[in-house]
Hints:
The chain is mostly beta strands and 298 residues long. It contains 3 helices and 24 strands. The longest helix has 19 residues, at 2-20.
Amino acid sequence: MRNITLVLSLIAGCGFLAAQNDPPGRVGRLNYIDGPVSLRPAGMTDWLDADVNRPLTTDDQIWVGDGARAEIHVGSTALRLDSNTAFQFLDLDDRAIQIQLSEGSLTVRVRNLAQRQNLEIDTPSMAFTVLQPGEYRIGADADSQTATVTVRAGEGEVIGGGRTFSVRAGQQARVDGYDQATYRMMSAPRMDAWDQWSASRDRREDQSMSARYVSREMNGYDDLDQYGSWANRPGYGQVWMPSGLAGDWAPYHDGIGLGFRPGDGRGSITRRGASRLITMAAGPPSMAVGDGCLGRMG
């Protein structure tokens, strides 16, 4: 009963903080890193080593180094970056996700796309707009001035070289050049090692137990599977409880938090009073779930 009470108390607290400090728009979450990944926050000139759980917003830039991979979530949308990829959020709010892919490869898994929401990926050769939920891979090669769009599922629209055309499931489009661009349509190629890795990440999300009880639009929902378990409790229904905690554990006593307000890429280390609390600590966390609020403290 003590565990249930703690979880419910934290949920109530999250709801209060959300009401008092409602951020102006969505943020992304850098939820996976493998290898050297660098970050240049909006308004800064220096590149920093990126950390898992880092919140991302408009004008933040990511560089994925040689042999590295990274994954960003904006709600239920997964953005997967292959090695040697230059990525930037040009715009990120409640209605739009606009991305600049200067070079490299980006796979986008879109689970939900509301009627008035827009998802656009810009490369030096073209702009690609997602029209339906699905799986999309976009590549940009600055040396050869080419861009490719591969649609495994869904449908999108390419604008490049003064032309607009659709790319549907099972198709690939290649755009060559910048100002005087030309394009070719062909069948989507067979899946390579990158596609297979991305598909394995999809399966991991598809099998998430927490997605049965928590909206996929809440950043970090999938971490609940790793750090705890769900159980049915009479009078409460399904309740998530953290695992691996000490007997004298209490919430918000260990770990550090990053107070982050979208539009201010600097952030600050804080205990409370932030617009949105994102933890930077590793290890088994305590987590509270409710109304789109996820707290995580080491």
